[in-house]
Amino acid sequence: MTDLKENIHNGAKPVGTFVWEYSAPAVPMTLLQAGMDFVVLDNEHGHFSYETLLCMIQLAHSCGGDALVRAPGLTREAVQRYCDLGCDGLVFPMISTPQQASEAVRLSHYPPLGEKGMAFGKGNMRYRADGDGQSFIRQINQRLLLLCQIETVEGVANVEKILAVPGVDGVFIGPLDLSSAMNRLQQFEDAEFLETVARVMKAAKLAGKIVCSYAGDEKFAAFCRAHGCDMIVWKTESSLLFEAAGQAKKMLTEVMRIPG
């Protein structure tokens, strides 16, 4: 476990991946042991119980990695529990207005930034039930990484206002939904799409905020980095398995053609 937000502000460029399909807690740990810096445990499209998320987060921390959770939306029950489980950051999908960004902060942060319910001795306090509560609250509010996903046309138009909300640490570009919203589904080399991505990234950098993006190919990842991206979320655990299995099958089919 590291202080992901502090490391990024100090110049680190971490790479992670989504975990959204396989509920074995060892999956994120395996990805981190393979060299990933963090995982994003996806409960927007995923289906993980609180118990499973708890095991995943604890195993991620046990090998020195970070675990973010993508929330299904702006729901108090889910967001509060993700924080209490000890996640290192939260990703909020489909944030299109500063009001939605403010709600994300309100649900996930202790006062004075937000209105999260008090619960000492939980995972976000690393199970310490002693010490000064005010000190814990300041540390947790400072450490939690909050990213707003910009993946709608309205979100792009409001990106400067979203970034100006206190407690918002940065943006997470969702290229698939953004391309769909622009009527350019999966056209990741389209000039207008790339200009839009660059505009969002520029706004974040001018605001001194963190830029994260999903990337499914090297060319788009390189484009993002060239425009100031600080974090890359590379594919998903299921797509990585699918590709590795296909490559292994192709290689071994050729091997098995060699006369014995």
Q: Main β-sheet, in a few words?
A: 8 strands, parallel, barrel
Report the helical percentage: 40-55%
Question: What structural category characterises the helix and strand content?
Answer: alpha/beta
So how many helices? Answer: 12
How many structural domains does the protein architecture include? 1
Q: What is the highest CATH level, the class? A: Alpha Beta
Strand order of the largest sheet: 1-2-3-4-5-6-7-8
Low-confidence runs (pLDDT<50, min 5 residues)?
none
Our Rg estimate from Cα atoms comes to 19 Å
Shape: globular
Named CATH topology = TIM Barrel
Proportion of residues in extended strands: 15-25%
CATH architecture, by name, is Alpha-Beta Barrel
CATH superfamily: Phosphoenolpyruvate-binding domains
What value does the average pLDDT take? 95
Along the chain, the helix and strand elements come as HEHEHEHEHHEHHEHHEHEH
Measured between the Cα atoms of the first and last residue, the distance is: 49 Å
Number of strand elements: 8
Sequence-ordered SSE layout with sheet pairings:
Elements lengths: L3 H6 L5 E5 L6 H8 L4 E5 L7 H13 L3 E5 L5 H10 L3 E4 L5 H11 L24 H11 L1 E6 L2 H5 L1 H5 L6 E4 L1 H7 L9 H16 L3 E6 L2 H9 L4 E6 H19 L5
Helix pairs in contact: 2-3
